[in-house]
Write the C-alpha cells for this entry.
Amino acid sequence: MHIRKLVLNGFRSYSHAEFMPEPGLNLLYGANAAGKTNVLEAVFLCALGRSHRTSRDVELIGHGLAGAYVGMELETKSGVRLIEIKLRTGDDVNRNPKDKKQVFIDRQRADKAGDLMGVLNVVMFSPEDLALVKASPEVRRRFMDMELCQLYPAYYRKAAMYNAALRQRNALIKEAFNDPIDPEVLDMWNAQLARTGAEVMRSRLSFMDEISTIASDMHRRLTGGKEQLFTYYEPNVPFEAEDAEYAIYDALEASREDDIRRGFTTRGPHRDDIGIKLGDTDVKVYGSQGQQRTAALSLKLSELALMRGVVGESPVLLLDDVLSELDDDRQKALMSSAFDCQCLLTATGTESAAAKKAAALFEVRNGDIKKVIQ
Ligand SMILES: Nc1ncnc2c1ncn2[C@@H]1O[C@H](COP(=O)(O)OP(=O)(O)O)[C@@H](O)[C@H]1O
Ligand SMILES: [Mg+2]
C-alpha cells in the first residue's frame, strides 16, 4: 500500500501543508525542529488513531488553534481509501468528549476507534526503537500491541476491554483503605479481567511464536551467522493456551491481599514482557550496546516481514532519524528489507547513501513540505 496524498491543517507546526510522496523511497530533509517528525506522526495517527510520542491528542493541535485536521488518500490492493481525523481542543462549551477526536473512513464517521485498525498499516522506526531491548517492559508490550492491533483489528477491542476492567479494579482496590471491598464486586472484576486478559495473552503468545522465527533468521543474517537470537513471550501469569482464563483468575485471587496493600493490580498481562536471549545469555541484562541494538533491529525488521506476510501487501515504513544511528552494514540491511515498501525517511541532510537512491526528495521548512526537483 502507499500514501498518495497527506493534508495537514492546524496539525503541530503546520497551518496548511500538502505532501504527495512517491510509492518508493521518499527523503524528507530539514534542520532540527523543522517539522519532519510531525509528518511521520500524522501518518502514524492515521494508522493507529494516536500519536507515537504522546497520549495527549491536544498536543497535536497547532498552538492557539481550536482544532486540527489530517486527511490521507491511500492506495491499497483493495482500492483507494480516504482516512480523515479531526481533533478539537474541547474548549467549546457543551462539546461531547467523543467529538474531541473524530475519525472518518471513506467519508463515513467511524464510531469506534478500533474501526481504523488495519486500514493503513505502518511500521515506525525511530531512535527510541533501537532501545527496545534495554527499555522498560512497557515499551516491549507496546511493540507487541501495536503490531497486533494492525494485524488483527479485533485485538484492539480486546485490549481496550481488559484495560477498562483493570482501571475499575484498581479504583476499587484504592478505595479499600476507606471502604471495605464488597467481595462480589471484586469477584466480578476478577472474572472480567480473566476473560479479556486471556484473549490478550493468547494473541500475544501466537504473535511471539510467529515473529520469533523470523527475528531469529533476520538476526543470523545481520550477524553473519555468528549470533543465535531467541525471542519469546514472557507472560506475567504462566498459562497453557486453554486454561489462560483460569490462570489469571487464580492469580488475581491469590494476590488479593498483596494488591490491596500495594494499591494496584499486581498480576496480569499489563505486566507482561518479551524475553530476549543470545544463546543462553539474557541480552537485556548482559548484552553489549551493539548486541542490544542489533537484536532490536532484528525484531523491528521482522515486524515488517510479518506484516507483509499476513496482510498480503507491504506496510508503509516510517524511518525517523535512524540511519545516522546505524553503521553501514546495518543501514544496508534496513534498506534492503524495505525493498517493496513506500518508505518515508527523515534526515537532516541529503548526504546518506540511502538518500541517493530516493525516488523523491522533500525539503521541510517553515511549515512547508516542498518537493525538490532532482
Ligand atoms: N502543537 C504544536 N503547535 C505548533 N508547533 C508545534 C506543536 N508541537 C510541536 N510544534 C513545533 O514543531 C517543531 C518540532 O517538529 P519536529 O517534527 O519534531 O521536528 P524535526 O524536524 O526535528 O523532526 C518544533 O518547532 C515545535 O515547536
Ligand atoms: Mg525529529
Q: What stands out?
A: The first strand starts at residue 2 and ends at 11. The two ends are 25 Å apart (CA to CA). Residues 1-121+315-374 form a domain with the Rossmann fold fold (CATH 3.40.50.300).
